[in-house]
Specification:
379 residues, alpha/beta, Glutathione S-transferase Yfyf (Class Pi), Chain A, domain 2, six-stranded antiparallel sheet, five-stranded parallel sheet, 14 strands, globular, binds adenosine-5'-triphosphate, binds magnesium ion
Length: 379
Amino acid sequence: MHLKELHIHAFRNLQQCSLRDLGQFNFIHGRNGSGKTSVLEAIHMLSLTRSFRSRQVASVVNFDAPALMVRAQLAEAAGQDTRSLGIQRGRDKSLLLKYDGERLRSFNDLAGLLPVQLINPDSFLLFEGGPAERRQFLDWSVFHVKHLGFYGEWTRYRKALKQRNTLLRRGKLADALLSPWEGEIAQTGAKITAMRRAQFERIADGFADIVKQIQRDIGADAAALSQQHFTMRFHSGWDDAEGELGADALRAALVGSREQDGRQGFTRLGPHRADIRFLCGGVNASDVLSRGQIKTLVCALKLAQCRLMREQGLDVVLLVDDLPAELDRERRRALFSLISTMGIQLFATSIAEDDLDDSWCGASGCVTRFHVEHLAVGG
Ligand SMILES: Nc1ncnc2c1ncn2[C@@H]1O[C@H](COP(=O)(O)OP(=O)(O)OP(=O)(O)O)[C@@H](O)[C@H]1O
Ligand SMILES: [Mg+2]
């Protein structure tokens, strides 16, 4: 779904602020420290109950308030019918989620409601950071395609893995103890791997297409980013023979690694160790590509994922924080012309009002502009 209205209360410096008449392209500008990133953070919290800047909710709740609240009117991109989605999070870690007047009981109920993708100054970590960043990237789209049931499988997997690790740490390696948990890890782990692999392959196809389009538009970077130099591969976290093997093979691998896992005190293989490897000229891409090239590729990857989700019937919202820091004018133009054909809703921030040109998105007047200092009442 897309946002039609957004109401924010006690979220960092934003005491009370409303954005109405939201369109496809929404641009938030204002001075340093005025609350631009906080608006994007609020949308992100509505989508996944957490901030992208801080793990601790106490740092996000306004200093003088006991709880923050974010509420939005959502609608299908093509429709008018709106439904309300709201979140309240307290300093005491309380969480209340409501959709269409009903309280949501499980995180899984958020799947598919408001898929939000983020491009910000930390996005290069997709290449330069650890595998957890890349698993999060991939799992985001698997999670939102609700009928796949990823969250349920992942929850069962995590629980079984925790039990196995506890037994390993206590030196309890008897077959009768480990076997039930390994069975559960294998069943759920094979399903998780199959979902991730299928989604990855589709993202990789779309990615090649998008990179070509960006290169055509900006006419640069062609050598380093060409397909023969740049490759990416999915690693399942265990040897599944490129997707040929399933639960039985994972179970056998776990049984075979009991002793060594026991010595280490944790499970060394499985989907919790999955990764995506980006290579350029056969070596780690982050060791050769420039920061600008990495940013372009990260944008292309994220857009490829958004496009796939559109094909899977989901309306995606893209947040781009600090637009000029992420993309020069050429890349911005290329990115926006792509987005305008993809039906994604965009929220972008910048200090200067003229960092986003209407002509990049279609006709003049197609960008809805908000000055964050004018939105905040009592902020
Ligand atoms: N819990 C909080 N309560 C009150 N104010 C806060 C809290 N957390 C952060 N702030 C303040 O809120 C403001 C919002 O910061 P934000 O990062 O959204 O600004 P910004 O417009 O994105 O700035 P920049 O252009 O520097 O990126 C800052 O002035 C910050 O000091
Ligand atoms: Mg900011």
